[in-house]
Amino acid sequence: MDKQQELYAGKAKSVYTTDDPDRLILHFRDDTSAFDGERMESLERKGKVNNRFNAFIMEKLQEAGIPTHYERLLSDTECVVKKLDMLPVECVIRNIAAGGLVKRLGVEEGSDLAPPTFELFLKNDALHDPMVNEALAETFGWATAEQLAEMKSLTYRVNDVLKQLFAAGDLLLVDYKLEFGLFHGGIVLGDEFSPDGCRLWDANTREKLDKDRFRQGLGGVIEAYEEVGKRIGVDFS
C-alpha cells in the first residue's frame, strides 16, 4: 500500500491517502494538546504508545463484534484504516463523575454513576465542542435518528467490553469519547481509543493514568500510558 498525500493534520494525528480509495493511513505523532489546543507539547514515544494501544483496543472491540475502521499496524506510529465519512458528533459515556461533568453540575469527583450517563457533543473546536442532544443532531442534519440510535447502542457495548478489560488490570474506566463514521452506509467506530480520549484511574489508589496528567501538570504522562497498556496486555516492543 502506497502512502500518498496528507489529507488532514489534527492535534495529535495526521491522515494520509493511499492508492486504495477506501483506505487511509493514520500517523500518530508525539504531539500532545489540551484546552482546545491552547497548550501543546511533544512527548517522546507518545506516537508509538498510542498507535499500539489503539490497535490493541480496536482488535478487542472487533473480537466482540463491534465494527471499527482499524485494519492493521503499518509501523510503530502508523496504521491502516478504512476511509469513513465521519459524523460530526462525539459520543461520551461517563461511569464515574470527573472532568466536565463535575464542573457543569458541581457533583463530587469520583462519584459512581449508575446507570452510566450518555452524552453527545458537537465536534467544533471554534465552539469548544458544545454539548448537544439527539434532537439537535437530527434537526441540523449531523446524523439521522437511526444513526444516532446505532451510535448510542455501540457506545454502550464498548463500555461493557472495556470496563471488564480494564478491571482485569485493576483499572477504572472513568469516561471516554468515541467518534463514528459511515463506511458503505454502515455505522463504524473511527478515530482512536487511547488514554488521550478517556480517563483511567488505578482501581485501588485512584491515581490518574490518562491525559489528565498532562492537563493538570502531574508529569509522567507517557509512563502512565505505558503502565495502563502493560496491565491489560499491550505489547509496546
Automatic annotation (TrEMBL):
Q: Which reaction does it catalyse?
A: 5-amino-1-(5-phospho-D-ribosyl)imidazole-4-carboxylate + L-aspartate + ATP = (2S)-2-[5-amino-1-(5-phospho-beta-D-ribosyl)imidazole-4-carboxamido]succinate + ADP + phosphate + 2 H(+)
Q: Could you tell me the EC number(s) of this protein?
A: 6.3.2.6
Which CDD domains does the record match to this protein? SAICAR_synt_PurC
Q: Which EC class heads this enzyme's classification?
A: ligase
The pathway is:
Purine metabolism; IMP biosynthesis via de novo pathway; 5-amino-1-(5-phospho-D-ribosyl)imidazole-4-carboxamide from 5-amino-1-(5-phospho-D-ribosyl)imidazole-4-carboxylate: step 1/2
Signal peptide stretch: none
Q: Which PROSITE patterns does the UniProt record give?
A: SAICAR_SYNTHETASE_2 (PS01058)
GO process annotations (BP): 'de novo' IMP biosynthetic process; cobalamin biosynthetic process
KW Cytoplasm (keyword) present:
no
Similarity remark: Belongs to the SAICAR synthetase family.
According to UniProt, the name of this protein is Phosphoribosylaminoimidazole-succinocarboxamide synthase
Species annotation: Halomonas halmophila
Taxonomy of the source species: Bacteria, Pseudomonadati, Pseudomonadota, Gammaproteobacteria, Oceanospirillales
